[in-house]
From TrEMBL:
MF GO annotations: oxidoreductase activity
Protein's name according to its UniProt entry: Pyridine nucleotide-disulfide oxidoreductase
Region entry Disordered, spans: 440-477
InterPro entries for the chain: BFD-like_2Fe2S-bd_dom_sf, FAD/NAD-bd_sf, FAD/NAD-binding_dom, Metab_Enz_Cyan_OpOx_G3PDH, Opine_Oxase_asu/HCN_bsu
Protein's UniProt keywords contain Oxidoreductase: yes
SUPFAM superfamilies associated with the record: FAD/NAD(P)-binding domain
Length: 477
């Protein structure tokens, strides 16, 4: 069995599959397991402090250590899956062929491997989503995910005076991590108003009972906020950043329920760094390449077994819905167990099935409480850069849309080049879709047949070695 992604979902899937005797290869593009949630210092620079900086650290170390010493599980790090071919194209009985490059992405010696697994678990997580605003391309403006990577993976302070803004519960751990690096966090500005938070979080409170440990996590963040005197303000957004060579100040404004700024409420705050996050976008390129169906909300459609619409392909974690680490762990366990021949109704999965029920409910609450509202486009000026790779400003997108009456994403992309740069629309794709109007279901910015940049030499000299996992192999049921 092949598992792509060694975050919470992928680790849990690999462990559950090993418990059923399947031989497992676990791949991740980065050089450590743990994914986004358990991002930590590299093994060459260990810290005794990791436990204090991560919720559930012992869960991570138990998963990692068990898999690491298990001869039936091969963990391959620095392993970038760059393409998936569907069965027909691959001409094989296996559901898909998975093409991987292993080695440092900035080196020239990456080694190609191709897997034709009898079962594939996709657990590729999400990107953080940041809405543009005037000045968001200034140095010193970070995505909150990048801020987390600096704080948790490098212990680097982004600045001395930092503002955190956007929407969603993710702002809380980001503020805690940034404060832990010694930076002064001047405030956390949540765009959703109290009424939206109440609508998302208060209904059917009994459904939250099973998630009591989230309460503990929340209490930890509240404690950090109180200790560092970090104000948490709702119904406010950073609507502009100012500076010459780097950010020097931001404008924070009160926003209405639709996130449109309320005139006269603007306030300028001197800062040297800003961290912004407006939620997450699932990393869908591999499931789309594998032929998996998506839901109308654009997550991978799975059934109670975490099986996708493609036989032999399973999905778990943030690619099926933004439910947080506990949902990812539960889904991963179910996916690995079933992919290795088990049933979702097996008694030993009961706890995971219960946890999935509890924590996937979080996804709907997060969307209701913190989901992006359409008024954000009123923050934009004509010269606000939307596609940073190709430097396409909002005005050009708007004019092109009006001049051509085209709501076609593809023609917009070819006319303006928005989304054609190095990130291939990962940062601006959904933003451009919203500016252009609803995309046709089949034409979205999530489709990237080549999932990551690769050198032509790597393509031309591709090692045809094929590692095939078959049910008859070691230990597989
Ligand atoms: C930038 C960022 C930071 C976050 N930080 C926090 C936090 O501090 N606290 C919190 O509560 N939640 C955080 N989250 C939310 C968090 O991602 C989830 O709760 C949890 O980590 C989801 O687990 P997962 O296994 O689904 O995905 P992830 O943890 O994202 O793991 C997915 C893994 O798949 C790998 N991968 C993806 N594509 C490929 C490919 N093509 N080839 C090979 N490997 C691939 C990635 O490298 C990654 O390690 C963060 C999310 C993001 C996007």
């Amino acid at each position: 069995m092949l598992v792509v992604g060694a975050g919470p979902a992928g680790l849990a899937a690999a462990k559950a599959a090993r418990e059923r005797g399947a031989s497992v290869t676990l791949l991740d593009a980065v050089d450590a397991t743990g994914g986004q949630y358990w991002r930590h210092l590299p093994a060459s620079r260990p810290s005794a402090n990791e436990r204090a900086l991560h919720h559930g650290w012992s869960t991570y170390t138990a998963l990692h250590e068990e898999l690491d010493r298990d001869p039936g599980c091969e963990i391959v790090l620095g392993a970038q899956v760059w393409a998936i071919e569907q069965a027909d194209a691959a001409g094989e009985a296996a559901p898909v062929a998975v093409h991987v490059l292993v080695g440092p992405p900035d080196g020239t010696a990456r080694r190609g491997r191709t897997f034709r697994p009898d079962a594939l678990v996709l657990a590729t997580g999400a990107h953080d989503r940041t809405l543009p605003f005037p000045g968001w391309d200034l140095p010193g403006v970070f995505t909150a995910g990048a801020a987390q990577a600096f704080a948790k993976g490098e212990r680097v302070a982004l600045g001395e005076r930092v503002v955190i803004a956007g929407a969603g519960p993710f702002l809380l751990p980001v503020a805690a991590s940034v404060a832990a690096t010694g930076a002064k966090v001047l405030g956390v500005y949540e765009a959703s108003r109290v009424s939206a938070l109440v609508k998302g979080w208060l209904p059917k409170p009994w459904q939250l009972v099973g998630a009591a440990k989230k309460g503990g996590e929340l209490a930890g963040y509240v404690g950090t906020h109180l200790r560092h005197r970090i104000p948490y303000v709702t119904g406010r957004a950073v609507v502009a950043a100012h500076g010459t060579d780097r950010v020097e100040a931001v404008t924070v404004a009160e926003v209405d329920a639709d996130w449109s700024p309320i005139a006269g409420t603007e306030r300028r705050i001197e800062v040297d760094a800003v961290c912004v996050s407006h939620g997450f976008t699932p990393r869908l390129e591999l499931p789309i390449a594998a032929g998996c169906d998506l839901t109308p909300e654009r997550f991978v459609r799975v059934d109670e077994s975490q099986a996708t619409s493609v036989p032999g392909v399973y999905a778990a974690g943030e690619i099926t819905g933004i439910g947080g680490v506990d949902a990812a762990l539960a889904e991963g366990e179910i996916a690995g167990h079933v992919a290795a021949g088990g049933s979702p109704r097996d008694a030993d999965l009961a706890a995971a099935v219960g946890a999935r029920r509890t924590f996937t409910g979080f996804a709907a609450r997060i969307e209701a409480a913190h989901g992006i509202r359409s008024g954000w486009t009123t923050w934009l000026e004509d010269d606000t850069v939307v596609c940073r790779c190709e430097e396409v400003p909002y005005g050009r997108l708007r004019e092109t849309r009006e001049a051509t009456c085209a709501s076609g994403l593809r023609s917009m992309k070819l006319t303006t080049r928005a989304g054609l740069g190095i990130c291939q629309g990962r940062i601006c794709g959904r933003t451009v879709e919203e500016i252009v109007g609803s995309p046709a279901a089949s034409v979205t910015t999530d489709r990237r047949p080549i999932a990551s940049p690769l050198r032509l030499g790597e393509l031309a000299g591709r090692d045809p070695n094929t590692i095939t996992h078959r049910p008859s192999e070691k230990g597989h049921p």
